Amino acid sequence: MMFFSVSVEDFSPIGAGKVLLNGPYALLNTFGQLTGFGSILIAAIFGPAILRDFQQDTYALIFTKPAKKFDYLGGKWLASFVVDTAKRQSDGSGNETPMALNDLIDVGVFSGEKEHLKPLHMEKHRFSTDRSTLEIVVNEQPTFAGIDPYNKLIDRNPEDNLIPVEQK
Description:
Distance between the termini: 71 Å
Strand content: 35-45%
Helix content: 10-25%
Structural class: alpha+beta
CATH class of the largest domain: Mainly Beta
Shape: flat
Oligomer: single chain
Number of strands: 9
């Protein structure tokens, strides 16, 4: 009986005329409604935090120290680097106040030239201290490593987020 009710519903008309539930019009209508609902839900969840950071001129101070690489077992490479992180809030006068940092931030290790980087490792890491040492194993020889490599976060000096890897 349950199967019959589902199959009858699948082929019942929607709107004017005979439009099937799995037809393009019905799918477009359904996905459009889900997209609209999802956009409103995401704005409701993340909107207040983003607005607060924008109004209070909050930004993250992020940079990396030189990375070192050396051969690892089985043709793998170990990229080891130190990351300094700080989060500050600025008032309208330019006075900065340190804030507690407990954020997930992208960390990446890349190969290739600066203009054509190939990501070898891209993952969010939680940072809650001012200085962290990261060790990431990759399958190819890395050439660049850093934190927030695509500059998604507000940063006063984004050029120091991604640095060349030193040969050791």
